[in-house]
Amino acid sequence: MRKTERYQVESANSLWHIYKTVSFWKVVKNFIIIQIARYTPFLRVKNWLYRVFLRMKVGEETSFALMVMPDIMFPERITVGANSVIGYNTTILAHEYLIKEYRIGEVTIGDEVLIGANSTILPGVTIGDGAVVSAATLVHKDVPAGSFVGGNPMKIIYTKQQMEQREKHE
């Protein structure tokens, strides 16, 4: 089970309660910063924008590819370790709005993690150090360190031990 805080809502679906959850001006500011970062080719500038204006925790030499979309409402709940690669057009969510409730959760991505293009990471998920996430994966639960995962729904393709065995035989 993902680690999220759950908040029940009355009457209309939870998205109608959005600005009771987060400031309109925070969302506007985050939207502008994220759009600038999505298109800039300069990795250091992206990391600086994320750290300074969005309060994301981003490790040294981490790379966010073109079009990565961090959470627009709660980017401060995203941590990415050192020397990781977040692939093209990946979405990292720290919130989800449902009909009767909304959920908010930390997203922790470890050191030297590779996230393939077009993946979606849901709130409340931890991706362990050295993990590899295949392209177009829906990360809906924790990913063990050193493992290789993929698919929708995500499945473990190789454990850390199996990955180490494969590397020995190559």
What is the helix/strand order? EHHHEEEEEEEEEEEEEEEEH
- Give me the number of helical elements: 4
- Taking pLDDT < 50 over at least 5 consecutive residues as the criterion, the unreliable ranges are none
What is the CA-CA span between the terminal residues? 35 Å
Report the biggest beta sheet as strand number plus sense, adding barrel if it closes: 6 strands, mixed
Secondary structure tally: strands: 17
What structural class do helix, strand and pairing data support?
alpha/beta
From the 3D structure, determine the CATH topology: UDP N-Acetylglucosamine Acyltransferase, domain 1
Mean pLDDT figure: 96
CATH architecture heading: 3 Solenoid
Alpha carbon gyration radius: 16 Å
Share of β-strand residues: 25-35%
- Return the CATH class: Mainly Beta
Oligomer: single chain
The helix content is: 10-25%
Strand order of the largest sheet: 3-6-11-14-16-17
- The geometry reads as globular
